[in-house]
Amino acid sequence: MLNGVDLAIAEGATAVLGPSGSGKSTLLRLLDRLADPDRGTVRFRGEDVRALDPLALRRRAVLVPQLPAPTPGTVADNVCYGARLRGEDTDPARPLELAGLGPDYAGREASRLSVGEQQRVMLARALALEPEVLLLDEPTAALDPGARGAVEDALAGLAGMSLVVVTHDRSQAERLASSVVEIDAGRVVG
Amino acid sequence: MRTRQSRVLPLERSVLPLSPTVDVTLGEVAAALVLVALAAAVSLWRRADLERDLGLAVLRSFLQLTAVGYLIQAIFDSDSLWVVAALLAGMVGVGTLTARSRARAVPGAVWPIALALSVSAAVTLGIVLALGVFEPEPRYLVPVGGMVIGNAMTAAGVALNRLADEVRDQANRIEAALALGATSRQAVAGLLTRSLRSGLIPLIDQTKTTGLVSFPGVMVGMLVAGAEPLDAVRLQLILLWTLLGSVALAGLIAVSLGYRGFFTRAHQLIDHQA
Hints:
The complex is a heterodimer. Chain A is of the alpha/beta class. Helix content of chain A is 33%, strand content 17%. The two termini of chain A are 18 Å apart. Chain B is an all-alpha fold.
């Protein structure tokens, strides 16, 4: 998918722009070590990701997938999912608010929500881990324009958090990110 | 067909009331071919074109069962537990390959299945022997071991087949859980439960309806062989309950180890294209 990519991503908000099938999602999965490259090295804050505990890495750099895939249960169950994996608990209110969902969402069944609301639940459960970096894979590709605006507003409100946003939409890249990396056919082109 | 029953010494019954013995002559077996002729006649009349298959089926069943009969006779005559162990190991091998073919979509399923079959057979046979339900003799160990391994094979194959379907259908949800720092086991916890259930439910349902919908094979065999109905029922209950335990164990081992084939050590879902 990717070939000869030599790329340094700075702190702050970075967009990775490219057509579908260009290897953008693969790049995010490499950063999060959901996949490993056949050759080459991926570093996170200077450290080879293969030297890190993959579970700890994924809590520091949390990936929000392109298609919402909530676990069965309520919105609060989903937001607390990451903490409960380690036997801890967390208050879902703040992450929900950051994701643009009111506290009344907490008790609702996640699978019954609209796709746009589910996408914000996925964002909230990533934020609940208080990550250093958010990795967003086409955060609005599955959404209608109204829902897209709501998710973009939520992302724009996360001032100070480092983001890597993968998108095929140049205007979205420019709205959400201060720097833009373009890739095509598995290579960095700009 | 003549049934000889040891009515003389009713007190001498051991743990199991396997007293009746049956003599079946080759002539009686040959007489049953009349029913095959009936099937062949139906096939000819309705042009179903099954005569060749029928003939082959009769020939194969005769040869295979006769060979197995001599084999079991030889094992009983040897009265050696080593020979029994070797035979059961062979059954585990064949059962593993059979279950493996059903669970082809599970990477590296051979060892989980082989462990599931051998451990469940060893544990359940060990328990029934330790409790004194059966004597440690080839006459009990071979057929009971065969039933345990056969049922464990089906349960492990069904459970792993379901697991592969679940992992394929839920790949996005599994990877979303991994992305939050879940271990591969945490990411598939719900799937393991559903896969285990699907492996166990057929035998549980069969056990629930036993005697109502169909008579289980051992009971039929004992009744035909002249055993008292309540003796046949008791033996059948022992076997059904033994099977429940062994099947639960086999399903648990198969899914608990089998899911690992879908993941790397770094908790990555293998071959997933998001």
